[in-house]
Every structure is written in C-alpha cells, then in structure tokens.
Fold this sequence. Notes:
Mean pLDDT: 80
GO molecular function: potassium ion transmembrane transporter activity; symporter activity
Number of strands: 9
Function: Transport of potassium into the cell. Likely operates as a K(+):H(+) symporter.
Radius of gyration: 33 Å
Keywords: Cell membrane, Ion transport, Membrane, Potassium, Potassium transport, Symport, Transmembrane, Transmembrane helix, Transport
Family: Belongs to the HAK/KUP transporter (TC 2.A.72) family.
Distance between the termini: 25 Å
Amino acid sequence: MQSSPDKVTWGVAIVALGVVYGDIGTSPLYTAQTFLAGQGGLGSVNREAVLGMLSLVFWSITLITTVKYVLIAMRIDNNGEGGIFALYSLIRKYGAWLAIPAMLGGAAFLADSVLTPAVSISSAVEGLQTRPPLEGLFDENPSLTLMITVVIIVILFSVQSRGTERIGKVFGSMVLVWFSFLAIVGVTNLSNDWSVFAALNPVYGIKFLFSPDNAAGIALMGTVFLSTTGAEALYSDMGHVGRGNIYFTWPFIKVALVLNYFGQGAWMLANSDNQQYTAMKSLNPFFQMMTPNVRYLAVILSVTAGVIASQALITGAFTMVSEATRLNWMPHLQVRYPARTRGQLYIPVVNGVLCVATLAVLAIFKDSEHISAAYGLALTITMITTTVLLGVHIWHSGKRVGAIVFTVLFLAIQAMFFIASMAKFLHGGWFTMLLTAAILFVMYTWNEGTKLERAQRRHMRPNDFLPALDKLHSDFRIPYFADNIVYLTSDSETKRLDTDIFFSIFADHPKRARAWWAVSVETTDEPFTREYSVENFGTNYIYRVRFRLGFKVSQSIPAYIHQIMHDLSKTGELPKQKSIYPKVDADPDIGTIRYVLIHKALMPESKVSARGALSLQAKYAIRRMAGSPVKWFGLAPYNPLVEVQPLFVSTRRPPRLKRTDTAKTIPTPTPTRAVADPAAVPDPMDTTSGLGRLVQELDAAVSAEERKIAETAAAAAVAEQGDKGKAKNGKPAAKPQRSAKQKR
C-alpha cells in the first residue's frame, strides 16, 4: 500500500496493470461470443443488433466501471483500502442493518471468484482449436482443452505464496502488451468500417434492447454485464497499488477495450453473410477476426491474460477474507505477507479452497461456453450491495441529493443486470448462488456466535482478583501446577483480567503457580514492529503482557515469553526461578511454563434461542476445521492445555427428579477405634478456616463485577433524577502501581 493513495510511480503502475486489470481485460474473449450464442449465431444478427450490443457495452463500461467505481467509489477508501468490507468499516456506525448487504455482497464476490479463473483460462485455451493444424488433434481428444486448463490453474495457485509483488511485475509487462494487442487488432478491423462508432449513441442500445429482433430479450443485459465483471475486483485491489496508479492507467485500459469491442463489431458486420462463419458452431469473433498466423500469438497472450485475470480475483479474495476476519465475520486464519507491503498477503487455506472449487467448476461445466452461462449472476449482487453502501456513505457525507441520484440511477441499472442474469440460474448460476449461500452462512453464524460470546464476557479489576490470587499464591498446602502459567487472551486492555482466566485458575483443583501471565497479541500496520508492554499490578506473581508485532514478524509466542521473563528477572520485577529438572526449552534460569487456551462450549442448560444455539454450534464446528492458536503461535512442542469452559447465556433450572423408592435408615455403626473429633476437620463453608475464607473471597471476587454493574446503573438513575446532575457517583479507577515497556 502506498504511503499516499494518490501517489503515482511507474513501477507500481506496472504492478497495477498486472494485478488489477486482469479480469476486465479478458472480457473481450467471451462477451461477443456469448452475444452471438444468445441471438442464434452470426447469421441471425443485423446491423441494428451489432450496433445495439456495442452501444450497451460501451455505456455499461462508462457508467459502471468508469463513473461508479473509478470516479466515485475510489474516492471512498478506508486508509487506502477498497472493497465492500473496507467500505462497510467506514459506515457501520450508521446502522447495524448495514452488515446484511456487506455480508451478502462479500459472499457473492467470493463465490464468483471461483468462476473467473475457469472461464478466463478455458476461453483462452480454446483459441487453439481455431488453428487448422490443431483442429484434428482437438477433435480426437475432446478433453485436451480441459486438461491444459487444469494444469495452468494448478500452477497458478501453486505460485501464490510468492506474493503479488513479483507476480505483478512480471504480469504487468505482459498486460501492457495484451491491452496494446487488443487495441491494435481492434483498429485493424475498424479500418474496414468506421461507421460502428455510431454505437456511441445510447439510443442504439436502448432501441435494440426492447426490439422484437432481440432474440435474447432482457437476458441480453446479462451478456452485456460480462464486459464489466472486473470492476468490483478493480475496487477491491485498490489497496495493493494505490488509487493514483489506477487513475493513471485506466484511460489507456478503457480505450484499448473499446477499440477491441468495436473492432469485433466491425468484423461481424463484414462477415454476417459469410457462409463459412454463419454455419460455424460456437463462433468466437475475437479469434476469427485475426489472420491464422496472428492467432498463435493471440492464444499465447490470451492465456497469459486469463492467468492474470485469475490473479486479480485471487488477490481480491485474499484481501476480502482478511478484512472479514478483522470484522469477526470469519475465523482467524493463518496469513502470510510475502512482500513488505501489508496489502499484499497470502492465505493458504483460502488459496487451497479456491483451487479445489475452481477445479470443481471445470469438472462440472467442461468448457467456457457453459461456464460463461453461469458467470456473473452472483457478481450482480455484489454490485447492488456496493451501491447501497456507497449511497449511505454519500448521504451521511452531507450530499443527500447526490446520494439519492447515485443510488436510484445505479440500482436501476444493476437491478436490470440482476434480472437478466437470473436467466442463467438453471444454466449454472445455481452453482455460484449455492456458494454464496454457504459463504454467507459462515459469515452470519460466526458473527452471531461471536456477539453471543462477547455478551457473556466479563472482566475483573485488580481489586477484585488480587486478594484471591494472593491467597492462592501463598498457600503452601497446594502444590504448584507449574512455575509459570501463561494464558492467551484476545483482550488487549492491560488494566484488567478476563473472568474466564480467573475461573480457570480456581476451577476444580486451583492452579497454583509462581507467576500467572495473561498475554494478548496485537498486529500492527508496520511490517517489523517488535514491542511489548507489561503490567504487574504492583505484585510479583501476576503479569499482563501485550505484544505489538508487525504483520511480517513471526508470532512465536514461546520465544518472546522467554525473553520477557529474562528481562523482568534482570530488573527484579520477576523473582528468580530455577528449573530443577530438564525442560523442553533447556532454559535453567526460567522455571517450568504451561500454556493454557480457553475455549467456550454451549451447555444444555443454557437459555438461548434456537438461532443463537445454531450460530454457536456452527461457529465451534468452523473453528475446529479452521485451525488452532496452538499452531499459529508455535505452542505445539510445549504441550499446551486446552480448557473448555461452559458458555452460560442465562441458564434455566433443570426440573427436579422424583424418587420412586422408599428412603431407608442406615444405623450408625459403633466405632471400634478412636476417630478424630469432627470439629477438628475443616469445613469448607466455615469462614474461620483458611479454605473457608478462600472460598468466601473467591465468591466475593466473582460477583464483584456484577455488583459494579448494578451500582453503576443505580448511580445513573439517581443522577438522572437529581437537580441538574448534582448527584454524582463513582470513583476513578485506581492507577496501576507498576508498568514496564521495552522495544526490540
């Protein structure tokens, strides 16, 4: 990501060509082919049909891609990042309902990302069939095209771990050649009939759309939509190359696209009566308008462009999943940053899922003609939801008239695209809609489950947990569970402690230790940040640690914990520890360390709605499949303890059981030997005994947070009824006695 989103550099501009424009650059490969298939072939179209199609394509690219995305959407960024999730992050404060269109649009975008590699690469490879010397080979081996496509796709997904910076620089030069080739081929055919530029008049498009000569009817707009399918990816990839570089390169891209589309139109008009082409099945004007010798170069370049188009969607998918994770709409996944720019990332799980799903598309639909029949349906949903979110942002920016005009205009256009694309549902659109529903289910259930968990999360202040911990720390009757017990927590606030950690320490058999540690990890936007801060609450046995690690820094928690323990030991903040027996880390200056992770589980007696229970159960199932912090933080060699704590979303009392037999009195046996005085046995409920006092302190500490909530509510009610707010209640939080912060 650029230091300034408007900064323009030649190097990054080349990367923009390679990463951002790949998808929209392959649209000429199949848009005209799909148009002819919908009209019944080349012999069924006349001049009005060709000019109408060209007019609709030109104005769709102009309105949707240029006006909506390049000129409007790209001015609305979130710290340089684009895409529907980054946009939602800007406006979610305006209403909880905005999460619905954001989730729906993101799910649809990810679903359609599966079809882009398949349709782009397969349509390019099929260009080999147009060469006479190779026709016999492909006729004898019908699956040869499919096999070549599969090999290319597998190779593409295999190199993703190297990052888009290297791929973009290589692809950028090729895309520059590709768009130049599109423009040259288009101009070559335009030289025979410049009159096709009459299609710049939108009347031709509107007239043909509603003409009885339009065999496809309103479904024609579904074909026209194929020319704009790269617009959403262009917006999503803005964070990778910067807004300024896209502004700088877009005019060249649009001119090349328009020249090629109009060149195909000129070729169709010139050959509409040619029997050689009118009888041809699955005619593709893109390849046919070239001489046979040029087609070899066209196939090579188009395959490269197809790979680049796939790269654009894969890159956008990585970005969207990363943003969904930060929104708590998806589970935490392992993210790698192959380059020094945080915007360029790689998510192994997403890469693998996309690869498998793309291969499944090829196995189901076989060729580009059938894939393109399903392509674009889900993406229309993404564009509609993006329009809604952009309209909300413009409205709350104070431009209400502009927001109304923008929303009404683009919703009308994109609603027409959606209705037209619904004709694709039975022809394969069901596949992307099914994927959209599955991804949406994951997002929704993960979000709902997270909200339920957070509603039950409680925190304790030092005055609440220190007395009980101090009692346990000095209770020599309880053996040490470990010298150091390290808890991982998602709470980054160092002035408090999760109640879950407190319960874990005292549940069942208390976990006594020389020191307890609560550790959180924060990832920064700088690549190589290595910082930590420590809060010890004025004690030498409880430490609250917060790591601040750059996004390229390995999150090897055990190594950092050892360093912090040594640092605190040198400063005297941590008492000296000696390990008597050998340990896995072979560090004699630090005692034994046990890592504890806490997971939540829904209990049968929890009082929760059916929807809430489904969300929680689905979240826990997804979490098991997505991976574990044990792997993310390098804890596996240290035999971490994974605890499951009950999640009580308000509980219902279970019904009492009824005893069916008769109670029998058992006589007290006469003692045959002396026994201890019962009064000498400590009673856990006796507050005069050590154990009884500990239980009493524990109960008091556990309920302290609830008492504070009640007192705060009561104080607020009194203040509200008082005379001009004179009645005040509450005390300032006690300042921590000691803290330390070091940087490495």
